[in-house]
Write a structure and sequence with these properties.
Structural class of chain B: alpha/beta
Number of strands of chain B: 6
Number of strands of chain A: 10
Strand order of the largest sheet of chain A: 6-7-8-3-9-10
Oligomer: heterodimer
Strand content of chain A: 25-35%
Number of domains of chain B: 2
Order of helices and strands of chain B: HHEHEHEHEHHEEHHHHHHHHHHH
Number of helices of chain B: 18
Helix content of chain A: 25-40%
Distance between the termini of chain B: 34 Å
Strand content of chain B: 5-15%
Structural class of chain A: alpha/beta
Radius of gyration of chain A: 18 Å
Mean pLDDT of chain B: 83
Low-confidence stretches of chain A: none
Distance between the termini of chain A: 34 Å
Radius of gyration of chain B: 31 Å
Chain lengths: ~240, ~425
């Protein structure tokens, strides 16, 4: 498989605090790659750099041949980022929000309509899409945002804690949606605290702590290497 | 351009909330009612006023005073009581506002130039404008009668000198000079006329700047508070477009809001000034002095106002980028508000030229000072000062927009924070 994202020696500091101390990883086309680690490990910083929100202090991030620091506009055309605590514009209806976002990616009105139809299918919110987002539950907002992130069929979907704060049913539905889109060829870079979710979704995982990657491999490889039954135990062994 | 318009439309939709429409409607209605109340009060001043009179004199002179009061639009009500105490008591019990007592022997004594006292009783039940003005009118009337009597005496005793010449042996003529133009008239009257003609300019400016800045600040703070900014920053659109869309949408809604508020304000001011007659004599002086806005002065004023609004929007954008949420945006708005209020009050209550040099430099360094001062400078013909102000504001705007663009195009938009006392920083 072709490498779609290549991260080399990535470093980022906030003042005196070193968030990333030179991490390396790559994501292949159609692969789901997960960053797992405790709070403050540097997962969100890494995702934000790939999403062109933060500028790296050192190192190189290459996406589809574009350097994220030098060509952020080209990168943005082919990615979709779902932040951990993302919100949507409360005064807009669900449909208005989807149309607003689709207009940035579509070349013409026909494509906009196509994106919206796909988003409607993903979100499964029915007539509630005609209501103001301010009236939605947290689960509905998250589904809407995920639909927004996937409706344009980006080359890389960057999902930060996609099921954060959601109940079991909503989490399951969102995982199924992601899995379905991966089958259609989308690559995914995600972060999560939920090891069950990671095992269900990911082809490979990187365990990160204090700005350093401790281990990279498929969930099966890691479990075998550490002779444990699940990823949670691998995590506990590595992060103490 | 399609992407920019997409953003611009979203910003407009976000800004036109039910709260905004309600607050605008409420203010206009409130101003309308206050204006109507003021108009009623002013009409009371202009209309016939009741005065109750106990005339114990019944001489020709007291008759003359009553006729003059009637001419001054007073409705004369003669009291049929015997003495002062009864008259005051009657007035107190019957809600009478104004009572005049002409004492016995008033006419003969005055004609013999043995000063007599008219007693004017004002019963204050409220401090409304009309109540206070009635007493003033009576006072002025007594002054006129006094003049009339003393003039008559002078005419009878000294026939070769007019009373006017005797009382005012030194005469003066007042001329107002503005550059190469000169006209005879009262400088106070002209200043008052110009003040009332241009009173709306600083108010409009202050309102537009305040509304627009507050809106752009809130728009950015809301993006942060509602966690929509991160997503917006990763869509394929120039960050400068994001800044511009927010600024223009906020500017437009700010302008509309200020316009609607001004309609309300006109109702309010109309209540006070609507019934005042225009003074053709002052108008003539104004024309002679050229104290009128010409089309070129309107263009200069428009450019100056527009640049001030742009500067305010750029400052608000920078401040908004440094805030976390709506609460911190409100705190961040205060310094900008002061920057607008300082030149506003100076333009109304003071003359910048009378300030000390350091203070003058400080005031002129505030970009918003220039449009506040522009209207006066344009009337006087100091176009070059207005032009320098426009150049200065253009320079400041370019610097500010560069800073705003820099903040938005780098990760500072997410990492930079203003720290307010008692609040935790965002990251």
């Amino acid at each position: 498989m072709d490498v779609i994202l290549d991260v080399e020696n990535l470093k980022k500091s906030y003042g005196k605090v070193s968030a990333l101390k030179g991490i390396d990883f790559s994501v292949s086309t159609g692969e789901v790659f997960a960053l797992i680690g405790p709070n403050g490990a540097g997962k969100t910083t890494a995702l934000r750099i790939v999403a062109t929100l933060l500028s790296p202090d050192d190192g190189r991030v290459n996406f589809m041949g574009y350097d994220v620091k030098k060509n952020p506009e080209r990168v943005r055309e082919n990615i979709s980022y779902l932040p951990e605590e993302a919100g949507a514009y409360k005064n807009l209806t669900g449909i208005e929000y989807l149309r607003f976002m689709a207009n940035f990616y579509a070349r013409d009105e026909r494509e906009v309509e196509g994106f919206i139809r796909r988003a409607e299918e993903i979100a499964e919110l029915g007539d509630r899409l005609k209501d103001k987002i301010g009236t939605y539950s947290k689960g509905m907002v998250r589904k809407l945002l995920l639909a927004r992130a996937l409706m344009t069929m980006p080359e890389l979907a960057i999902l930060d804690e996609p099921t954060s704060g959601l109940d079991v049913i909503n989490s399951l539905e969102i995982r199924e949606i992601i899995r379905g889109f991966v089958k259609e060829g989308i690559s995914v870079l995600l972060s999560s605290h939920n090891m069950l979710e990671i095992e269900f979704l990911s082809d490979r995982v990187a365990i990160i702590d204090s700005g350093e990657i401790l281990e990279i491999g498929s969930p099966e490889e890691l479990k075998e290497k550490y002779s444990v039954r699940n990823l949670e135990e691998v995590f506990r062994r590595l992060v103490r | 351009m399609r992407k920019f318009m997409n953003l611009f439309k979203k910003e407009i939709k976000e800004l036109i909330s039910a709260q905004l429409i309600l607050s605008l409607a409420f203010t206009v209605i409130l101003f309308y009612f206050i204006g109507n109340m003021a108009k009623t009060e002013m009409n009371k001043i202009g209309g016939a006023k009741d005065i109750y009179i106990l005339n114990l004199d019944d001489s020709d002179l007291s008759g003359e005073i009553l006729r003059n009061l009637a001419l001054a639009n007073f409705k004369i009500n003669l009291l049929d009581v015997k003495d002062r105490e009864s008259a005051v008591d009657f007035a107190r019990k019957n809600n009478i506002n104004l009572l005049l007592i002409i004492p016995e022997g008033f006419g003969p004594s005055v004609l013999k130039f043995q000063p007599e006292e008219l007693e004017v009783y004002s019963f204050i039940r409220s401090f409304s404008v009309s109540t206070m003005s009635d007493t003033e009118i009576v006072k002025q009337l007594i002054g006129i009668v006094n003049n009339y009597l003393s003039d008559n005496l002078i005419r009878n005793r000294i026939s070769d000198i007019t009373p006017e010449d005797l009382k005012n042996p030194i005469k003066s003529r007042n001329f107002i000079v503005i550059k190469d133009r000169m006209a005879e008239g009262s400088v106070t009257d002209v200043a008052n006329f110009v003040y009332f003609q241009s009173i709306f300019i600083p108010i409009i400016l202050m309102m537009v700047i305040t509304f627009s800045s507050q809106m752009v600040l809130s728009a950015i703070a809301m993006e942060k508070q509602d966690k929509t900014l991160e997503t917006l920053l990763t869509v394929p659109i120039s960050r400068n477009y994001i800044v511009m869309a927010k600024m223009f949408a906020s500017g437009l809604i700010g302008l509309l809001s200020a316009g609607i508020y001004m309609i309300g304000f006109r109702f309010y001011m109309g209540g006070f000034t609507g019934s005042l007659p225009s003074n053709t004599q002052i108008e003539g002086v104004i024309d002679k002095l050229g104290l009128r806005f010409t089309s070129s002065s309107y263009i200069f004023l428009g450019i100056s106002l527009f640049l001030a609004i742009l500067c305010a929007l750029a400052i608000a954008t920078i401040l908004g980028a440094l805030t976390d949420d709506l609460k911190s945006a409100q705190s961040a708005f205060l310094p900008l508000m002061f920057l607008v209020l300082i030149p506003y009050f100076i333009s109304i209550f003071s003359d910048i030229n009378s300030l000390s040099l350091p203070l003058k430099i400080l005031i002129l360094a505030i970009p918003f000072s220039h449009p506040f001062l522009a209207s006066q400078n344009l009337l006087i013909g100091n176009y070059h000062i207005v032009f320098y102000g426009i150049l200065y504001m253009s320079g400041i705007f370019v610097i500010l927009i560069f800073i705003a663009g820099k903040i938005f195009s780098t990760d500072r938009i997410l990492t930079m924070k203003l720290r307010f006392r008692g609040r935790r920083s965002g990251s």
